[in-house]
Amino acid sequence: MFDHDILVIGAGLAGMRAAYTASQSGADVAIVSKVYPVRSHSNAAQGGINAALTDRGDDWEDHAYDTIKGSDYLGDQDAIEIMCREAGSEVISMEHMGVIFNRDEEGKLGVRSFGGQRQARTFFVADFTGQALLHVLHEQILKIGARVYEEWFVLSLIVEDGECHGAVVMEIRSGEVHAIRAKAVILATGGLGRVFEPSTNALICTGDGMALAYENGAPLMDMEMVQYHPTTLKANGALLSEAARGEGAYLLNSEGDRFMQEYAPNMLELASRDVVSRSEQTEINEGRGIDGCVLLDVRHIGETLINEKLSQIRQLGIDFANVDMVHEPVPIRPGMHYQMGGIKTDVNGLTNIMGLYAAGETACVSVHGGNRLGANSLLDTLVFGRRAGDHASNVVRSRQHSDAITDQYAERERNRLQEMLNRNGGGELFGKIRLDLGEAMNTHLAVYRDQQGMETALEELKGLKTRYDRVIVHDKGKTFNTNLIFTLELGFMLDCAEAIILGALERKESRGAHTRTDMPDRDDSNWLKHILIAKDENGQPDVTYQDVTITQWEPQVRSY
Ligand SMILES: Cc1cc2nc3c(=O)[nH]c(=O)nc-3n(C[C@H](O)[C@H](O)[C@H](O)COP(=O)(O)OP(=O)(O)OC[C@H]3O[C@@H](n4cnc5c(N)ncnc54)[C@H](O)[C@@H]3O)c2cc1C
């Protein structure tokens, strides 16, 4: 058994920011990550990070208003105010740590325009902003010497009487299972993209943290709010960053029309993501698409600028769509990208379980509501990662390790895994179940939804769970048993899918990314509220509601 003051689960931006802050405050911090830290999905973020800097004539309240409108008024305004107020100092502190942001002609930090915002306020490092931020934070983690359990997999949380005391983890290399005792645990496990197939997310984005919290009775909030990004490649779901539209790209239909003029006459291609994705899907559904796609055209920007600011996505187009965007428009379509919902936390990352925090994409603070603005997620990970680290480091000063926590928790997990490995016949391997899950979700819980489709998805999920109960792990070994890891991840994914479908069936209106063809209007009188799903004492999902916090921006009609 290992002991630490604070155990951070996840080495993406949220986890490393939390660990860095808590360490600086003097706590003994450890990080667990199922992959080498800089392989976390934060590494894939291309476009940038938002902040309203006053010396650029911008105002945090404008950023807050854009975020609230983007959220279709479902975001909690107190949390959004905090995020937008703290954004400037967060970006500057990352710059001081060593992130080499792009600069403009005057030598000041450069910005690009991103969707749903009336000001250009997205700071960026070419089209690999996430990688730049993540590597710099990783350097800081190495410098302060925090213990990193890299390539260790969290199997379960240790929760007794509503308090979290650590986690049980498996070292992937040896297959050994250990308990790690901690006075506080911060879940920073990222998103659940791969519950859908395809997705822009890395294969490791399987919602583990959300499922772990859900399993222990923490509510998941706004899970029906799943973002489809407007520009993904058909072949494999890979993302072409909003940076392309930020730099001026057009969206065209099969008739060569810039169709966003119809749907969002003011903001055009830079309307909110939910709006652009719906517009594209309507064009495709009404026969003005090309092979299930519309076109992203950047030719007018010119090769020099494309190479300077969009080189990665140019390469993605060449590699996966066989199209060089310098010479031809690229076929793209809406694809699953981001989970707005997650583990319900307060503005310091605390969940309803004492000692358990969450931050980053796995959490729902809530700052994104029904639709996240591009470049607000990196900001969310850093601001709320830091706040969670800060709060936890204060709390652990007066908390002791619980003596009741012994190796028995690890032993329970060793037995559970052994039982799984002992299973030999009567079931199937994980792969087909995972694919069927992803396809069911992408069929019935995509850009447009309706009652019948969502009920079908729930029915299919029941079948998938039955198949999972008999799942077989063909590799019986201990060393790097990735077959076992994938199988465990699938268990987490099925729980996440359940919360998404139940939330979606519950919300009887259209708001943000949750658009029902059978209930097309937003209904503020009945549904201006969060939907929370938590397991009751019998392990059954239970639905409750929570009011949306409104500070100074009353809901209005949303148009772009
Ligand atoms: C292709 C792409 C581009 C994007 N571009 C942008 C952008 O330009 N701007 C923006 O604001 N947002 C962007 N986003 C969204 C943003 O990148 C993510 O929401 C954010 O980086 C998530 O960070 P995180 O720290 O919460 O999680 P992640 O970076 O996903 O890290 C999760 C961590 O948890 C660990 N983990 C998970 N489960 C376990 C387990 N069971 N045991 C041990 N460890 C575990 C993983 O190893 C990993 O270290 C993009 C997302 C994608 C997919």
Tell me what the structure shows.
- α3 (77-97) crosses α11 (377-395).
- The protein has helices spanning 13-24, 60-70, 77-97, 129-144, 208-215, 243-246, 260-263, 273-285, 303-309, 311-321, 377-395, 408-422, 430-444, 451-469, 482-506, 524-527; strands at residues 2-9, 29-33, 49-50, 111-112, 122-123, 147-150, 152-160, 163-171, 177-187, 220-221, 226-232, 250-252, 294-297, 330-339, 342-344, 356-358, 363-364, 448-449, 515-516, 529-535, 541-547.
- The model has no long low-confidence stretch (mean pLDDT 97).
- Strands 1, 2, 6, 7, 8, 9 and 16 form a 7-stranded mixed sheet that branches.
- The longest helix has 25 residues, at 482-506.
- Among the domains are: 230-334, Succinate dehydrogenase/fumarate reductase flavoprotein, catalytic domain (Flavocytochrome C3, Chain A, domain 1); 408-525, Fumarate reductase/succinate dehydrogenase flavoprotein-like, C-terminal domain (Methane Monooxygenase Hydroxylase, Chain G, domain 1), CATH 1.20.58.
- The chain has 560 residues and is α/β, with parallel strands linked by helices.
- Bound molecules: flavin-adenine dinucleotide.
